[in-house]
Specification:
five-stranded antiparallel β-sheet; alpha+beta; Arc Repressor Mutant, subunit A; 347 residues; 4 domains; SH3 type barrels; single chain
């Protein structure tokens, strides 16, 4: 039976205090004990085997850690049996302490504000960080504050152009309420919108673009948020595939996009004076880095294009890039160049 519970017990715990004489906690064990403490505080009762899986240790190690927490003054107890688990005394809370210097700094390395603004969380983010800053160990606060002013992560691409406004409110409602969605969606290159009923897993921001990851007829699908013309949350509960989480569905879809079969291998030669610019602009399609011995005016490179027509972008380099193979790509570029010449040759 658990011990009697006090009301609103809030304690700042040092997990290294109160241990038996001679007990020494290394940094790994200290972090693990704090992780257990915060998991129990967040989740309530948690089975020992689940904690073991989460922290990648044995169940026996978890029980030893629970004993160490108890010896340090944390009111934690374990109940055996089918419905048992490890739990904190009701009403016990601990402040966010025990963070290392690197962990404190990591919390304040922020992505560009666009992601939070799209979710309506800009104000909430600022408030949360102020609370975390107040709860940090005093020696780590200056470093965390400096980090927030010196490091910024911007996930958007250079010269990506203005992105259309995206209303994520309805998509968020479906994701967080575990409800099905009815979408009116326009595919790329299709002027007509189509209606789909989907089972959402969540939202993903990829290079500044938001995507809805969802199942349609029990198969994973990717919907670009800025192509959603209308969305309605349905009263029906979501029907996700058992055991599949957002990260799992996203990994499958990501691989489908990146490993899409087909395409055309294009061999080109590039003037050395334009090589740096060529490599930067074609990084996404570069099949392998060119071997450059530092001699001669030309360097040979190989690209992987999705289709013959995609190679037209190479014409932007003028005579600084020449396609060597395959013949159909050379013919496509020659025809395009001739058409452009005809436009400018007129009166």
């Amino acid at each position: 039976m658990p011990p009697a519970s006090p009301d609103n017990l809030t304690v700042s715990v040092n997990i290294c205090e109160g241990l038996p004489a001679g007990a020494i906690l290394g940094p790994v064990k200290s972090d693990r004990l704090l992780s257990i403490l915060l998991l129990l505080q967040t989740r309530g009762r948690v089975p020992a085997h689940e904690l073991a899986d989460r922290l990648e240790v044995s169940v026996r190690t978890i029980y030893r850690d629970v004993e160490a927490l108890s010896a340090s003054g944390v009111p934690v107890y374990a109940e055996r049996g089918r419905h048992g688990g490890i739990e904190l005394l009701a009403g016990f809370r601990t402040d966010v302490t025990g963070l290392t210097a690197d962990e404190s700094r990591a919390l304040f390395i922020l992505a560009a504000q666009g992601a939070h603004a799209a979710l309506g969380l800009d104000a909430a983010l600022g408030s949360a960080l102020r609370k975390v800053m107040a709860a940090l160990p005093a020696p780590h606060r200056p470093a965390a504050e400096v980090t927030s002013r010196r490091v910024l992560v911007d996930a958007t691409r250079w010269k990506g152009g203005p992105q259309p406004a995206v209303d994520l409110d309805v998509l968020q409602d479906a994701v967080f309420s575990d409800r099905r969605l009815r979408l009116r969606y326009r595919h790329s290159g299709d002027p007509e919108a189509h209606t789909y009923t989907v089972d959402p897993y969540g939202l993903v921001s990829k290079a500044g673009i938001w995507y809805l990851v969802a199942d349609r007829r029990a198969k994973p699908r990717l919907f670009r948020a800025d192509r959603v013309r209308a969305a309605t949350v349905l009263p029906d509960p979501v029907r996700r595939r058992p055991g599949v989480e957002l990260a799992d569905a996203w990994e499958v879809l990501r691989r489908q996009v990146e490993e899409r079969p087909g395409g055309v291998d294009v061999t080109v030669r590039v003037r050395r004076s334009r090589l740096d610019l060529f490599l930067r602009l074609n990084a996404a399609t570069l099949a392998e880095l060119p071997e450059d011995d530092g001699t001669g005016d030309w360097v040979v490179a190989r690209l992987s294009c999705g289709a013959v027509r995609e190679a037209r972008t190479l014409l932007a380099f003028g005579d600084a890039v020449e396609v060597l193979s395959p013949p159909e790509v050379r013919a496509e570029l020659a025809a395009t160049a001739a058409a452009v010449r005809a436009v400018y040759a007129g009166d």
